[in-house]
Write a sequence for this structure.
């Protein structure tokens, strides 16, 4: 376990958790847990939980960071970022965040909404003409949609899209032939290809996780007049000092890219994406707003704190408060709730513009989650969540496949229990 906290730069350290409040450059302030109503002793329960999972080889390494009232009160690394190379986990490890890219893409589009350059209820075809005459598949054949999917639908996964086929052999063959996730295509080409394929359901009537956020990336390009990566850099990454976030890892940073491991959930971890051979060494042509970014715990925590603060961080406002609130409050119609993945029903969860949102308490799905909590995760088992009523933001980073809630659910209750006032 490491407690180097190199990106926090506290004035001094007392024990392993008790840090004095400080603010160096663009870093988040650091504080003793007790100064913001949390218990250092109770937070230490997280140490044993994560160390035990690593000892059992359920994951290779992890980074857990917690803020309360905008101050970092817990920031620790555990295990290895590369077992074979015997490299200890670093607090500046670069992580493939996959679907954690989605909220960043949504925030980018919402900034353009604040700028008056796009409307949430604009049809997608306003920005991608190929969507103008889009059809919906039915057992009787292709039918016209009752209404076109909108920008809002893209943000909340109600646009009628999926992550692949729609259950019809002929249509699914067309999806496969379109090669929609090809790294060599531009966002313009991607949008044009997808716009010619049918939807699975009527927009606004279901929540189905999909490549909608990749479409949103193209909408950002058209509405802003900039390539997607340039817009993100200019409007989000630079203002927030997210210095290690992007679509690829430069050569000089490659030693900080964590290895991805496949787990059999029985104690065997096998490397599946190693830095020396990773696709992330080179910038892709396809700038996937749905899953293409890499980042660090530090960078992503800064983004989340901006949202938790109502759209502002370090005196820099990225979103209007009422716009940031759209991300963290349920925007799904009743007909589309609760969100589900296949037969997996996530009881009590709705979805805002970019995040899942806890609408009602559940004893069946994530029982430690309080009403109002918002968050999401990424394919390699990365997670984050925030509780507005507790003024709490948490990020857990790892690189483990297949996707699992194991680490999030293991540490969530102890972190909430550490709140004493």
């Amino acid at each position: 376990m490491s407690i180097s906290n190199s990106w926090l730069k506290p004035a001094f350290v007392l024990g392993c958790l008790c840090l004095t409040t400080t603010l160096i450059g663009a870093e988040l302030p650091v504080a003793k847990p007790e100064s913001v109503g949390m218990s250092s002793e109770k937070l230490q329960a997280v140490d044993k939980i994560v160390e035990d999972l690593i000892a059992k080889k359920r994951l290779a390494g992890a980074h857990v960071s917690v803020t309360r009232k905008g101050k970092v009160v817990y920031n620790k690394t555990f295990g290895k970022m590369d077992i074979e190379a015997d490299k200890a986990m670093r607090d500046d490890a670069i992580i493939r965040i996959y679907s954690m890219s989605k909220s960043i893409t949504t925030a980018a589009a919402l900034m353009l909404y604040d700028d008056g350059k796009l409307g949430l209820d604009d049809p997608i075809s306003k920005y991608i003409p190929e969507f103008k005459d889009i059809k919906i598949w039915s057992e009787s054949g292709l039918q016209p949609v009752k209404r076109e999917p909108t920008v809002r639908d893209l943000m909340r996964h109600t646009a009628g899209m999926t992550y692949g086929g729609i259950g019809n052999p002929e249509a699914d063959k067309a999806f496969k032939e379109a090669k929609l996730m090809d790294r060599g295509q531009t966002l313009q080409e991607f949008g044009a290809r997808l716009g010619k394929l049918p939807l699975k359901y009527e927009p606004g009537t279901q929540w189905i996780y999909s490549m909608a956020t990749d479409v949103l990336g193209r909408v950002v390009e058209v509405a802003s007049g900039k390539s997607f990566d340039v817009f993100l850099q200019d409007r989000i990454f630079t203002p927030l000092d997210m210095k290690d976030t992007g679509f690829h890892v430069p050569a000089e940073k490659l030693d900080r890219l964590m290895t991805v491991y496949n787990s059999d959930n029985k104690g065997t971890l096998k490397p599946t994406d190693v830095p020396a051979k990773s696709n992330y060494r080179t910038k892709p042509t396809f700038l996937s707003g749905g899953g293409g970014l890499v980042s660090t715990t530090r960078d992503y925590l800064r983004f989340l704190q901006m949202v938790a603060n109502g759209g502002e961080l370090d005196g820099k406002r990225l979103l209007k408060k009422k716009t940031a609130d759209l991300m963290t409050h349920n925007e799904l119609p009743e007909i589309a709730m609760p969100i589900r993945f296949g037969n997996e029903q996530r009881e009590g969860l709705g979805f805002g513009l970019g995040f899942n949102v806890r609408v009602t308490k559940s004893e069946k799905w994530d029982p430690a989650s309080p009403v109002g909590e918002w968050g999401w995760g990424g394919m390699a088992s990365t997670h984050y969540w925030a509780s507005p009523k507790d003024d709490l933001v948490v990020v857990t980073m790892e690189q483990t496949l297949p996707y699992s809630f194991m680490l999030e659910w293991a540490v969530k209750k102890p972190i909430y229990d550490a709140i004493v006032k």
User: Anything to note?
Assistant: The longest helix spans residues 101-114. The radius of gyration is 21 Å. Residues 9-25 have pLDDT under 50 and may be disordered. The first strand starts at residue 13 and ends at 14.
